[in-house]
Amino acid sequence: MDVQKKIKSILDQLNTVLVGKRSQVQDSVACLLAGGHLLIEDVPGVGKTTLVHALARTFGLQFSRVQFTADLMPSDLTGVAVYEREKEAFVFHPGPVFAQVLLADEINRASPKTQSALLEAMEEKQVSVEGMTRPLPSPFFVIATQNPHDQLGTYALPESQLDRFLMRISLGYPERQAERQLLTGNDRRDLLATLPALLHEDELNELQRAVGKVHAAEPLLDYVQDLIAATRSGRWFLQGLSPRAGIALMRAARSQALISGRDYVAPDDVQAILPQCVAHRMVPVSDAGRGSIEQVRAMIDAIGLP
User: Fold this and answer.
1) Of 113, 242, 285, 286, which is least packed with CB atoms within 10 Å of its CB?
2) Which of 186, 160, 195 is nearest to 57 (CA)?
3) The model's pTM
4) How many H-runs (helices) and E-runs (strands) does the chain carry?
């Protein structure tokens, strides 16, 4: 398989659906190739769910969608054992989490109890139901959408769950030319129905293995450690990155390098992916007066290149 040709075809197909969002599309593909979960945060109606549908179809993965609401229970996700009279036994009926791609739509509208039901699934790729541990399909991705916290009926995701998402991205409103194309073109739902699967499971595994083989030189690792240490200095953030977050950052940087056509990680790859990988994991210092992403970019500017 020609890796670069395959990645280009994936990006090209996704960009026909998400018009004018090339950087967000590339980040999403980098996240999945790195084997991570994706959080998409934005106001309703800007294409969050459309992007998830397009990713699942393009990657050729089994797809399941759950609309998170205040009354959603953990068993609505994981499934439940029901007594069947004919078999004289309890039979487990799997929930929607048993899919290769789970779209957790508006995840922050559900209660913290239901949000926490995803923690084991996202970290261990398994769920414990009725005293039994059941493995989830492989690969397994959670792609969650959430509305801004200031909207009615939302619950902030706990830090432990935010840490399970490799990246958080925001789509934003389209530019004028892209919006004109949306207004005059076909309905996005009709376009989604025609998308072919460009990968099968073996090809996805091959791409993920290729990500793992991307080389990271010692000076590059020094630079990453300098960035991680800066997050822990107390200058920009109240609490720094954990070792797990550092490992996730390197996976994402390797994926970004592969998409860019290189077999080694460059500082540009780290800088391009850093805000999406770490901003949702940290809280800016109270006197900063800026959001997390702006703080990350200010930190990047302050740390010298290797």
Assistant:
1) 286
2) 195
3) 0.89
4) 13, 9
